[in-house]
Amino acid sequence: MKVAIKGIERELICPACKELFTHPLILPCQHNVCHKCVKEILFAFEDSFADGGSESSNQSSPRIRISASSMDRIDRINRSGRKRNSLTPRSTLFPCPSCQRDIDLGERGINGLFRNFTLETIVERYRQAARAAIAIMCDFCKPPPQESTKSCMDCSASYCNECFKIHHPWGTVKAQHEYVGPTTNFRPKILMCPEHEMERVNMYCEICRRPVCHLCKLGGGHANHRVTTMSTAYKTLKEKLSKDIEYLISKESQVKAHITQLDLLLKETECNSERAKQEASQSFEKLYHVLEEKKSAALRAIETSKNIRLEKLQTQVEEYQGLLENNGLVGYAQEVLKETDPSCFVQTAKQLHVRIQKATESLKSFRPAAETTFEDFVVDTAKQEDILGDLSFHSNGLEIPEINEEQSRMYNKALISWECPGKTDSADIYVLEYHKLSKEEESVTWQKTEVCGKSKVLSDLDDDSSYAFRVRGYKGSICSPWSREVIMHTPPAPVFSFLFDDKCGYNNEHLQLNPRRTSVESRAGFPLLLGSERLQVGCYTTLDYIIGDTGIAKGKHFWAFNVEAYSYLVKVGVVPSNKIQKLFHNTHDVTSPRYEQDSGHDSGSEDAFFDSSQPCTLVTLGMKKFFIPATPAAPKDPASRILPLPSCLGICLDCDRGRVGFYDAGRMKCLYECEVDCSGLMYPAFALMGGAAVHLEEAVTAKYREYHNDI
């Protein structure tokens, strides 16, 4: 039965069983727990060692309620390896349900704890107040028992008047027993030491804050502790407690004012939480609305593209059906052939013959009128998913900076750039941290640098390595959380710097260099039209070559460049110095009909002749594609050798190993690698045809961001 005790009820409730205390014990942390609860918790505690921390040990007692945090502490202590049969003195740990700490009960365990008789008396007093209508019956009356009138503290029993006289006759020792009103709470007249059961406690340990006996002070665990007499401790503690109580009572009006204020805060918290829920719901509803609009637009675009493609394919089907005998165009032509009048036949057959020729040409080079795949309609939501994953409540503090991967670069140096989502410079200073990723290192050591702006150039990074970067803002002593870590890769070798050579073989009629010689452009203008006259002799146009102005003799080097997306045909690679003249006077032309796959010649012999005739090692780019050369190790399917053109390309030449690699410079990923003859001085080589442009990647300097911002 739940007892309703007003005012101090929460002080009389056991934190373990959540009921009124029954024989409470004082823990070393000064909190109180029922004697039975302590035993049950220790039982569950010991059982966890035997069962490996199973939860079943807590199910045996419905009275006790061990919190999840207590069970976690039991598991933690279990994993710490405490042995039950250790040769060292055994120390019992107890998870206090009040302070959530693991309390050391010492070698005696529960037997070393004092019983809190004062608290027990208060609890019993309130028990009696709560059950005033329920009488305590005499323990010695014959049935039916009479209502007791007094209880003997020495006998620990309750008596009616008649039974008390019988068991406590005048002139005997029992007549001197102490008696009180009817009670069920019997406490000993003398408090005995739990460690020395025959000794009475007569001192108070100020260090451990508990009563002790003289043996505890002489040779026990309190030998070196500061102690005082029990009477002195009683007087001191009672004075302190009385003063504190008087102070609290004198501040009753202030306490009531605080209670009133807290009541208002409770109501305000309820209202504000409901308002916050509504605002959060509205924010998510806006996101749902945007997603629904995007979804509808994407589905409409796919449906429109589908209808257009189906219409084109259906029209193509109808055109080809017209090529069948006695059907459509062929059937009409067969009827025209029946015309015997020459003038009438010629009048009709001329236009018909043109249509028949077009149909014949389309039959030879069959190509579907529309693509069946919808690869261009794939929705990339990876970035949005990351953003939604980081979605959190807006704080009035510092904004979390974000590293801008598009503006950050890894080349001769590392340029790390960041920005704040709100586009406001709320921080006074930023701290950039970075570390090299390595599988061998167990612990991560971040290198730190302070930055006043929103970018930093780093020059102490290793080649061919991956680094993680993060940044946070500071405003005085307040700092923002760390940004999301960004991983970037350094070039596979030191960066090689050069410019386009405007002298050796440079064709200024077809190619145009910028004043700094860092960009070259091939214009499909009037000179290309003049070159098209060679169509009459079976050759279209030739490639226009340009090389770097600096050669490489040894070592490993890397350089990067950008190819404009509109470029029709570009070749990039390396050329040895002894073959430069042959490069600029090469008469072979890859665009000649002789080298087309459908020329009718043996493809294998053609490839062999083509490879042996090339003076340099080049790969082909164009029309936003990267073409892997046809080698024995390459895939046989031509479609699998075509990759999307990266926004930035790189070339890594290793003269010592005789290897050249072509990289996606944005991710520092090798796309293709082959052997190369490095017996002579090696030069970067480029070839352009039609409308095309190549821009050398600029070196990162300390003034790089300022220069580009000015532009």
UniProtKB/TrEMBL annotation:
**Any one GO CC term of the record:** acrosomal vesicle
Q: What is its main location?
A: cytoplasm
What does the UniProt keyword field contain? Answer: Coiled coil, Cytoplasm, Cytoskeleton, Metal-binding, Microtubule, Repeat, Transferase, Ubl conjugation pathway, Zinc, Zinc-finger
* One Pfam family from the record: COS
Residue ranges annotated for the B box-type domain, each copy included: 188-230
Sequence ranges assigned to domain Fibronectin type-III in this UniProt record: 400-493
Q: Which residues form a coiled coil?
A: 259-286
COS domain boundaries: 337-394
Any GO MF annotation of the entry: ubiquitin-protein transferase activity
Q: Which residues form the B30.2/SPRY domain?
A: 478-705
Q: Which InterPro entries is this protein grouped with?
A: B30.2/SPRY, B30.2/SPRY_sf, Bbox_C, ConA-like_dom_sf, COS_domain, E3_ligase_FN3/SPRY, FN3_dom, FN3_sf
The answer to whether UniProt assigns keyword Coiled coil to this entry is yes
Under PROSITE patterns, the record lists: B302_SPRY (PS50188), COS (PS51262), FN3 (PS50853), ZF_BBOX (PS50119), ZF_RING_1 (PS00518)
Q: Please give the superkingdom of this protein's source.
A: Eukaryota
Places the protein is found: Cytoplasm, Cytoskeleton
Give the signal peptide range: none
Biological processes, Gene Ontology terms: acrosome reaction; spindle organization
Q: Which Gene3D superfamilies match?
A: 1.20.5.170, 2.60.120.920, 4.10.830.40, Classic Zinc Finger, Immunoglobulins, Zinc/RING finger domain, C3HC4 (zinc finger)
Q: What family is this protein classified in?
A: Belongs to the TRIM/RBCC family.
Question: What's the protein name?
Answer: Tripartite motif containing 36
Q: Specify the species.
A: Cyanistes caeruleus (Eurasian blue tit)
